[in-house]
Amino acid sequence: MKRYYDTTSSSIDLDALITYLAWQFIILAFLFLLYLISGKVAIPNPAHIWRHDRVKDDTRCAAYPDPGNIAVAVKTSAAQATLEQLNRIANVFHCVAPERLLILSDLDQTIGPYKLHNVLSHASPTLLNWHNDFRFYRKQHNYAKRGLNVRDLATKAPVLSSETPAEKERSLRVLDKYKFLHMVESTWQLQPNMDWYIFADASAYYFWPNLVRWLREIDPSEPRFFGKATRIASSDLDIASDQAGFVLSGAAVKLLLKRGQHLTDAWDKKMTQMESGQHVLATALYSEIKLKLTDAWPLLIGETLGRIPFKQEIWCEPVVGLTEVPSDIVLRLLQLEQKMLQESEKNFFTYQHLFRELSKSLTVNTPHVFPGLPTTFLYRRLWDNIAESNQYDAEAIDWKDESLKADPDHFIHKLDDPNRTPATCAKACEAFTQCMQFSYLDRIYRFGVSRASNSWEDNGGDSRNPAGSVSNSQVFFSTWNRKRWDKYTSELVCH
Q: Which of 295, 318, 347 is the last residue of a domain?
């Protein structure tokens, strides 16, 4: 057998080697040319590969397989959509068959393996072409036609005063209100005759086992509309809280869309005067089919993580949907769900589990001992934990707890002004046995007797706040009494 190092035939074998390497180079060059032309890597995306066997890869899907009657529509925008965001959505809703997980946007796009559907493409031509609310929409479509990166339109430095970050954010928010009714229409067209339609924001986290359990208990043949109920001044109807998401039964969607294109044409004209997309949806459902919102709180909590009121009322309740969840928390929740279901498929995720997971974030804060106090507080500077049960300013006269007035020797009576420093605020919090955390800002301090363990809200010292505002000129101090939090939560028992 001849080998390339056989000197008796070196000239023939060397030519063969050169020919072989030349073909390899041509093939690689061809693949690279495809990449340049299409803008896509000609290799399957890892997230797409991971989705191919959901039951084996994900204990959530093994314990609660896709029932086949649920369509999930996730709302994003061309200005915000990234491969990272879409991978996150695919992981959160990993148990849903790919064809029934729809990404709805304001521009038709393909990002990696994901198809984004422009739900506004069938909106009124008058709105699309001429209305001021669609100015940003027209700009981003012009960008796309020219082959430019649409996200640059939302992030690049402003050229005109009307293109400031605040104005761009307002433009996106105004455009968003036109999507909701069209989302319902588009989702039905893409996935008709489902029993349930879940509409979620791209920042949401949904607990799949709890969602499946919840929907199993409800008859989808009846018109149903679920969300976290809230009120606005311009409407007498309950509307679903922004970003909390909403759920419609197939019967409700079918009944609503029986008018076909005439429905959205009629409502497009009304949307210009309405406050939000949730306002449009709630009003249309009631006007067209007399369907009102059913409050799904606390299953759909409608609060950011830092504002969830962890109390006995919800402590043992299952969580279905959260909003504005940071990506690192998404990963932690996914891991915790997997672990719980591996222990027992009967386990379901409650607010107790959520609190305990979020409480781990307290470890990033510094233990701090205030002079004269036996308690060690967890302390964080440049942070507002939104303690809000009681607020006391420098002019407060009667701030002492009634129960302390009977004890003239209590150290709290020696505090002429608990607003003076963080230390005096800490002493006041220590004296009030229900106080588990406080925040201090200059001459104001606030107690929290029942609050989330963390808030994900800093003091706002960035460009979002006007120069000279309180958030930019003062410093927040926040503390947590970990011992009281532990005692409080240990007394909350689920049966």
A: 295
Grouping H, G, I as helix, E, B as strand and the rest as coil, residue 205 is strand
Q: Taking the chain, what is the end-to-end CA distance rounded to the nearest angstrom? A: 78
> Do 135 and 244 share a structural domain?
yes
Q: Which residue has the tokens 């909701």?
A: 180
Domain, as residue range, for 469: 365-490
Q: What HEC string does 149-160 produce?
A: CHHHHHHCCCCC
Q: What is the mean pLDDT of residues 136-141?
A: 90
The answer to whether residues 142 and 152 touch, using CB atoms and an 8 Å cutoff, is no
Q: Are residues 28 and 73 in the same domain?
A: no
**Tally of structural domains, the chain:** 3
Read off the amino acid at residue 115: K
**27 lies in some domain:** yes
pLDDT tens across 363-409, in order? 555 555 555 565 666 655 545 555 555 444 434 434 455 555 566 66
Tokens of 203: 């920042």
- The model's pLDDT over 272-283, given as tens digits with 9 standing for 90+, comes to 888 888 999 999
Are residues 67 and 28 part of one domain?
no
Of 12-26, 183-197, 248-262, 298-312, where does mean pLDDT reach its minimum?
12-26
**From CA 103, how far away is CA 16, in angstroms rounded?**
51
User: In terms of domains, do 24 and 53 share one?
Assistant: no
